[in-house]
């Protein structure tokens, strides 16, 4: 029996706290932004707040959690330390039945964590200390971890020159050797701006499935509008999914375009995790060999569910 899907990404512990607007002003934080911080700034922020909830986060980890919620078989690899947050991370995944084959070591950097500051208007402002998570290297990923899966899902957030690029290539080579499909999430428009050429080369040569929102896709293809981007991407002959928020989603596959409306939402509480959970719904149906329309519909339903609650978890 196949192991279905393996996600590889940043292992970040999410720490949810409620604050007022004054707290953001006092700490010089821009509402709704994500700021990378150093360990000392992280510690001083953490000591100034009351923690509401802690769970295993990171974009691809959220997607694997969503697949597990749909009763799919999901595994995740991300780099953690054998510290307190590392233990919390492992436990959090175990609780929701996401397999975590990575064996943590005692490292000189702490497990990555993000303090998520929620203001009364439901906006979230994130202060993230990447810690050890960004140091995931090819030596951390054994062929045994990869074997037997149908899809490996990677995140654009992880791509960087040096050890991350080596790790990506290592994973892609193992996937090709073991006849496993590779999916990539573009993650963020800033990632695409920084690594546009690399991402396009990955799409042409290594990736079977690409997931991105309209802005990310436009940035990647560099055409005037989405229609021109779609026509350009058709030539790649890959499965490409484009999410368009309230305008629904599009899939390009075998030269066909499939459109899907967005699901109805009563009240948006928190937009975090919408893209991650869209990927959960889509990939779970895709693994179950559903038609592309059904894959898109499931993605839309999960995205709609998660934005009506705080956090990127449905379970």
How is the secondary structure organized here?
Layout: E1 4-8, E2 12-18, H1 21-26, E3 34-36, H2 39-47, E4 51-57, H3 59-69, E5 74-77, H4 84-95, E6 112-118, E7 124-129, H5 143-146, E8 149-155, H6 163-177, E9 181-185, H7 189-205, E10 209-213, H8 214-221, H9 226-234, E11 239-243, E12 249-253, E13 256-260, H10 274-287, H11 292-306
Parallel strand pairs: 1-5, 1-8, 2-6, 3-7, 8-9, 9-10, 10-11
Antiparallel strand pairs: 2-4, 6-7, 11-12, 12-13
Describe the structure.
The chain is of the alpha/beta class and 315 residues long. It has one domain (4-306): UDP-N-acetylmuramoyl-L-alanine:D-glutamate ligase, CATH 3.40.1190. 38% of the residues lie in helices and 23% in strands. It contains eleven helices and 13 strands. The protein has helices spanning 21-26, 39-47, 59-69, 84-95, 143-146, 163-177, 189-205, 214-221, 226-234, 274-287, 292-306, and strands at 4-8, 12-18, 34-36, 51-57, 74-77, 112-118, 124-129, 149-155, 181-185, 209-213, 239-243, 249-253, 256-260. The chain has an eight-stranded mixed β-sheet with strand order 5-1-8-9-10-11-12-13, with helices on both faces. It has a five-stranded mixed β-sheet with strand order 3-7-6-2-4. Strand 6 and strand 7 form a beta hairpin. Helix 7 (189-205) crosses helix 8 (214-221), helix 8 (214-221) packs across helix 9 and helix 10 runs antiparallel to helix 11 (292-306). The radius of gyration is 19 Å and the shape is globular. The relative contact order is 0.14. The model has no long low-confidence stretch (mean pLDDT 93).
